[in-house]
């Protein structure tokens, strides 16, 4: 059962992007989860009054949240979404999986930018990396049938710029905070671009039933993590929320409305598991705006 959710920052295009992803992603659908109130908004939020606040996109039982807001942040390839097309999930096997991958690629790449051409690579018979027209990055891969099963969708963290060569440190930290278990862990045998020998070429960890990949960039890049893509973790009660918040938050000025930035620059939203119920309470939005760490009893 999915617990970790990826949140994508949209520039007032939440509903439009939700419809795009519902069409582009296999078995996709979308729904508006919440809307901005019509009063009690901060000045910069007033143009969004009554519009969608969060839009949920569902793909094969996993959900992505689109946060409809202003132009403050933009997604970039430091966090991409990896889609695993596993032939064992298709009645037609590898040919059916490949056809589904190619069809998804065609839709996601329309109006976007190709970062790695769709083709054959040493690690996959079919792989490509694309940034779509909403600046969200996707890695599409034909999964090796011999490998361990992974979810269809996994957030993929690329450590570059100021976070270069810190992927191993991050994996160890997330294992400690979330009790995550380690999957693959492959290192660079020799220096490759900015990646040092021994840096992480590819790794993945499981947070409950959710998987996250992490790697150090092998090419120079001038971007790193921002709130344009954030990871949301629901907590069962205030005690767990306090523990996870205290373990992750490393940038006091980034703390706002349940958002934080960890020591690697990755943005997280640490929220109560019953966030939907809390936000339905009178003046809940106003109460949330006054908080940094979310306090359940103050909604």
UniProtKB/TrEMBL annotation:
It comes from the Bacteria. CDD domains: PhnB_like (cd06588). Residues 3-141, 154-271 form the PhnB-like domain. Pfam families: 3-dmu-9_3-mt. InterPro entries: Glyas_Bleomycin-R_OHBP_Dase, PhnB-like. This is 3-demethylubiquinone-9 3-methyltransferase (Glyoxalase superfamily). The lineage of its organism: Bacteria, Bacillati, Actinomycetota, Actinomycetes, Micrococcales.
